[in-house]
Amino acid sequence: MKNLPKIALGAWAWGNDGTFGGSLSADTLRPIFDTAMKNGLNLWDTAYAYGMGTSEKVLADFVADCEEGSYLVSDKFTPQCANPASPTAFKDMIEMQLELMKLSHFDIYWIHNVWDAPKWTQEMAKYFEGKDNVPILGVSNHNLAEIKEANEILKAHGLKLGAVQNHYSLINRSSEDSGILDYCKENDIIFFSYMVLEQGALSGKYDTKHPMPAGSARAETYHPVLDKIEILNGELKKLADKYHVEIAQIPVAWAIAKGTLPIIGVTKEKHVEDAVKAANISLTAEEVAELEKVADSLNINAIRFWEKEMK
Q: What is the residue range of 267's domain?
């Protein structure tokens, strides 16, 4: 396995696709990138689907100024962005992405979701079979049966599944309940947890008096349950005060304590500073259990439109 930091930084919002509300420019994002790199957070997660190449282009300009080997890039094959009729669809997409990002290889490469995933995993396996410098190969938004199937497909080509990336947070633990986390630990697979802050809902920034940006996709999901979110954020604040950090650091520290590698979306320098602090917090087993007890009692459904229960 490559030497990975405790936290990956997500560039989903850099795609300016309306998911988060507002817009971001390269000028505002550059200091964020620089601050992260200075603090050893050098793993960047992107996808062509994030603004149809917008996120990748911005990140490409930043890493172009860095010494090769000083950064790690995680990118994805998104089936819905490929031409399913083309026999070279997988090759075409990954090579287009590499050219777009001016890179010779990716450090981690994923099948983004389960849409016709066995076919695309097979194509990924055939593409990388026998190649040098094979990235960590991963699947995202897969349930346990689908993860096992992907691993078997890769093994048949002399490769292995090295990473799983699923939505995982205090209010969405279906990847844990379904046995995915245990399977990953047993098979030396890194579990990347995304949306651990639920797109800011578990940061303490938003409540019933301070809602999310109107019209954003996340507002539609979290506004109806902001009263419950307030209760959980109140519990998070107790630990934040104990560790002399802000609320946003605690869900990230929780994800690390669970043995996962969280992906944190960064749109401000403060988000990077928060991530650095979170990486240095070690929650006790009792603190983890208490957070989960409160979260479970609220019975919040945080499954998003592109997801499913990981049964």
A: 8-298
**Arithmetic mean of pLDDT over the chain:** 94
Q: Cβ distance 160 to 153 under 8 Å?
A: no
Amino acid at 172: N
Task: Supply the DSSP string of 231-265, one letter for each residue.
Answer: HHHHHHHHHHHHTTS-TTHHHHHHHHHTT-EEEEE
Domain containing residue 280: CATH number: 3.20.20.100
In a domain, 138, yes or no: yes
For the record, the structure tokens of 207 come out as 């409540």
Instruction: Identify whether 187 is part of a domain.
Output: yes
Please state which of the ranges 38-47, 135-144, 184-193, 297-306 shows the lowest mean pLDDT: 297-306
Let me know: does 190 contact 7? Beta carbons within 8 Å: no
Q: Is residue 1 part of a domain?
A: no
- Mind listing the pLDDT tens digit for each residue in 139-192? 999 999 999 999 999 999 999 999 999 999 999 999 999 999 999 999 999 999
Is this structure's pTM higher than 0.90?
Answer: yes
Phi, psi at 156, each rounded to 5°: -65, -15
Note whether residue 63 is domain-resident. Answer: yes
Question: Read out DSSP for 114-133?
Answer: -TTHHHHHHHHHHHHTT-SS
Joined tokens for residue 266? 């960064």
